[in-house]
Amino acid sequence: MFTGIVQGIAAIESLESRPGLTTFIIRFPEHTVGDITIGASVAINGTCMTVTARDGDRLWFDAMQETLRLTTLGQLREGSRVNFERAARIGDEIGGHLLSGHVHTTAPVISRDEPENNVTLTFEVPVEWQKYLFPKGYIAVNGASLTIGEVMDNRFNVHLIPETLRATTFADLRVGEKVNIEVDSQTQTIVDTLARMGYDRPAR
């Protein structure tokens, strides 16, 4: 499990592609993975990945073709910057909301507005996921727990303060780029339960 509080920005040092598998070699900031072990889980842009090897501040991760298809990891290249979060431990403060690291879908950036001292990003999810979007609800974008601002059909926006921009890769995001989306599990459970009881959420 993860909390959606991004712990830093790492960089793709290199990729090794083989039939059906891509290995990512990622360099992390100094002293952030010193105690990590083989088999540990790390969220890379919100995708739960397993450490397969380590050399100092560099970690190795393998991604199957299905993972590359369902997430934005297949778009990463040498030098790409990514958000990362190590798995939560019992007793950790939950500053965001609980995440599984299982990406539900991807969404392109539709617009980027930069009013003074913040940034507003608007995303568009596939229509089948819009029923889980609620103003002021939780959502994870590239592994970061965020509060939804406005919802417009299958589009939603988030408002980012300078600290969020400093601590994540959102400062790099531009219109047309895609992000990983994990909807809030509690919201999904409530919406799906009500739907099974016949109380489908009306289309907007």
TrEMBL record:
Question: Gene3D superfamilies, alphabetically?
Answer: 2.40.30.20
What's in the keyword line of the UniProt record?
Answer: Repeat, Riboflavin biosynthesis, Transferase
Reaction it catalyzes:
2 6,7-dimethyl-8-(1-D-ribityl)lumazine + H(+) = 5-amino-6-(D-ribitylamino)uracil + riboflavin
Under Gene Ontology molecular function, one entry of this record is:
riboflavin synthase activity
Matching Pfam families? Lum_binding
Give the EC number.
2.5.1.9
Q: Which domain of life is it from?
A: Bacteria
Please give the pathway this protein is involved in: Cofactor biosynthesis; riboflavin biosynthesis; riboflavin from 2-hydroxy-3-oxobutyl phosphate and 5-amino-6-(D-ribitylamino)uracil: step 2/2
Uppermost EC category: transferase
Q: Where are the Lumazine-binding repeats?
A: 1-97, 98-194
- Specify the Lumazine-binding domain's residue ranges: 1-97, 98-194
| Keyword match Repeat | yes
Q: What does this protein do?
A: Catalyzes the dismutation of two molecules of 6,7-dimethyl-8-ribityllumazine, resulting in the formation of riboflavin and 5-amino-6-(D-ribitylamino)uracil.
| Protein name in the entry | Riboflavin synthase
Q: Which organism is it from?
A: Marinobacter daqiaonensis
